[in-house]
Description:
Layout: E1 9-10, H1 11-26, H2 28-35, H3 64-74, E2 78-79, H4 81-86, H5 89-93, H6 97-102, E3 105-106, E4 110-112, E5 120-121, H7 124-136, E6 144-148, H8 154-167, H9 181-191, H10 200-205, E7 208-212, H11 216-219, H12 221-232, E8 236-240, H13 246-249, E9 250-252, E10 266-267, E11 271-273, H14 280-297, H15 305-311, E12 312-313, H16 315-324, H17 327-334, H18 338-350, E13 354-358, H19 360-363, H20 368-381, E14 391-394, H21 401-406, H22 415-425, H23 437-445, E15 451-455, H24 459-462, H25 466-474, E16 478-483, E17 496-501, E18 510-511, E19 514-515, E20 518-521, E21 526-530, H26 544-555, H27 564-569, H28 571-581, H29 588-591, E22 598-599, E23 616-617, E24 632-638, E25 643-644, E26 647-648, E27 664-667, H30 669-674, E28 682-689, E29 692-703, E30 710-714, E31 739-745
Parallel strand pairs: 1-9, 2-3, 6-15, 7-8, 7-13, 8-11, 12-23, 13-14, 15-16, 16-17, 24-30, 27-29
Antiparallel strand pairs: 4-5, 4-17, 9-10, 18-19, 20-21, 21-22, 24-31, 25-26, 27-30, 28-29, 28-31
Amino acid sequence: MTQDSKKAAGGMGALISTMEHVAREMGLWRGARLMLKANQPEGFDCPGCAWPEPAERSSFEFCENGAKAVAAEGTRGRVGPAFFARWSIPELLEQSDHWLEAQGRLTHPMIRREGANAYTPISWQEAFEVLGAGLKGLGSPDEAVFYTSGRTSNEAAFLYQLFVRLFGTNNLPDCSNMCHESSGRGLSEVIGVGKGTVSLEDFARAEAIFILGQNPGTNHPRMLTHLQEAARRGCRIVSINPLRERALESFIHPQEVLPTLTGRGTPIAGEFVQVRINGDVALLKGIMKAVLAADAGSEGAVLDRAFIEAHTEGFEDFKAALEAADWGEIVAQSGVERAQIEAVARIYVESSATIACWAMGLTQHKNGVANIQEVVNLLLLKGNVGKPGAGVCPVRGHSNVQGDRSMGILSNPKAGLLDRLSATFGFEPPRAPGLDSVEAIRAMRDGRAKIFVSLGGNFHSATPDTARVAEALERCALTVQISTKLNRSHLVTGRQALILPCLGRTERDTQASGPQFVTVENSMSIVHRSEGHADPASDQLMSEPAIVAGIARATLPEGVGPDWRALVEDYDRIRDLIAQVIPGCADYKRRVREPAGFVMPNGARERTWATEGGKAAFTVHPIPAHDLGEGQYMMMTLRSHDQYNTTIYGLDDRYRGVKGERMVVFMNPEDVAEAGLEAGQRVDLVSHFGGAARVGRGFLVRPFDIPRRCVGTYFPEANVLVPLDSVADKSNTPASKSVIVTIQPA
Ligand SMILES: Nc1nc2c(c(=O)[nH]1)N[C@H]1C(S)=C(S)[C@@H](COP(=O)(O)OP(=O)(O)OC[C@H]3O[C@@H](n4cnc5c(=O)[nH]c(N)nc54)[C@H](O)[C@@H]3O)O[C@H]1N2
Ligand SMILES: Nc1nc2c(c(=O)[nH]1)N[C@H]1C(S)=C(S)[C@@H](COP(=O)(O)OP(=O)(O)OC[C@H]3O[C@@H](n4cnc5c(=O)[nH]c(N)nc54)[C@H](O)[C@@H]3O)O[C@H]1N2
Ligand SMILES: [Mo]
């Protein structure tokens, strides 16, 4: 391990890394000016993560990794007609993701014409006509797929789903399908709302915070400020994770580097539970069994009986199942000693207000929905939903993924949304559910879907089973990327392909009525404005709402739907429509202008439960059995500290001590020895699912503090190993944190 991986996270290392990235991409002065606008009331919402901004903002509401995201967008590099004249598509396919990202911003609309092996320039007008003609020529609207990533603004998202439904399909898969779908699905069933119930004020009041399957030091660094404050005032923090993620051990706030030059950070988590991969159901059952035992031993002083009585259903069945659960199985499947499970239960028992946070470590498993519902079970026992200092906190990924959903980007919309669209726009929206991400891949593979449109994102590399996704995309007649930067989805294309380059979050957006802002919703359901001020990367760029409107006008018959041109002239006109159609958005254009924005409605927070039974529900789930065969390991796919999903900023993973390499497999040292392998050796990984084998070549063995029989690799390199059909029950999320592999010398 390098020195860095032993030091406190944050601190000087974070400051240096921030400055390096900013200076390299943007130049120091321009970069610094841009950074000061991040997450300010008059500035742009950081395109990094969806963690909320505090009401009292400091002048530096960004973090090392937010700075990398801003720098990546603000880069001086340009990918325009000259670039595509120099590089053919086969040549570009030879380059790494890191290289593609580093080339800079897309500047012009481009087309790959049928039979061509390179992109050539095209006018916006002709690009819209090509796409419009393609869509109109389909046998059915259901032969088109409209994907969305999570950076898209509410205004663009609203127009996009409206256009797609006017066109006649609900084929609106999104990145959420691979992300927090298990959270949304799991929470909706048991508390009646698919979102978190906490606010930042709750973090200031919690007595215990559980962090399950989340690495905030890398993926939500601004959350550390709040965890640090909590730890300092004595809040107990428990990390449940196969890895002891560095920033949860010790953290120095970059703004406190000078006062703490001693280099000693604030310890964050007091308790590290190194659960086996997908051992969370077993572990949570163990914790709850111990909580019930404590309750029995204290004559009922532990549980919140009044809450359970008044607000929940299913408690008796739940309790009976828990009593029947076997400690031997709990310990074996979780990989955690009973004594530690009981210690964690004590922390929960002693806390009168507990928050549970989680991210991909819980959602991306076959039993992802069950994981989330077990977390809710734990919270319900002590009434920890809808009370100050307590609640559920699924920490979102993309900065506006939650807002896109609120605006109607989803493949299985509720009838209410469709009814309101129908009433407002006078048409009959399609009622049949559309395709989610995994289903869309299958449909393209089978020739049932022929046109793929992507509003942001990198569908090729973010989805599971890379080789099959490539086949699916290549079978399409037309693939279209509305994007800021080049990625592999621009290169693995249908017979024809379009690149429609758009403005980024940080850039000035001027329309006929003047400068525009957009709105976004963060992880705590706060909707607020975001306005870019930087010069656009090229004068050819269009805004996302304008591109969606352009596609709509080229596709829909004259007079169908709203006056797209007028809407784009002044985004307040889009906001008027949002106010009419989306629940909780009345008076939208005024309320988003409040400095702190406004909060979307959330019944569970007020303890009204929009569930089937009208109450919060206890649920019972079996302990998933790990039937690992001889020589098999359970593999999770992770993010390094130097990437944003499929965007690779650099090749280091500072907190885990990895330098200059992404093809690594983290392994327990005893497993390394037992398998006859050596540190630094190259191995091939073979995944096994449904009788088929998939091979990933050339991973470097890296002995690491990880439970036995568990291994870790990086996303997206390891996506070749994630089977398309290995998905979570109910949410259909790829199980990209439970991949069964064997390991062989390369
Ligand atoms: N800088 C940066 N920020 C980001 C992103 C990024 O790529 N870079 N991505 C954004 C997006 S879209 C998202 S969704 C979030 C993702 O944020 P995270 O979910 O934190 O990201 P992952 O790297 O997938 O990490 C998952 C964590 O879960 C743990 N884990 C894996 N399997 C299990 C398990 O079975 N049980 C438990 N208890 N833990 C497990 C891993 O060890 C790891 O610490 O971050 C967002 N923010
Ligand atoms: N194995 C494995 N697979 C995973 C995961 C995992 O943990 N393991 N995580 C999953 C998760 S949580 C997620 S959210 C998905 C992410 O899936 P996606 O959201 O599809 O992928 P990203 O890499 O975030 O997309 C990056 C691209 O978005 C474009 N872009 C950036 N900013 C903008 C913008 O402002 N507007 C537009 N129009 N385009 C923009 C750029 O071209 C950039 O290359 O991946 C999933 N895949
Ligand atoms: Mo995500």
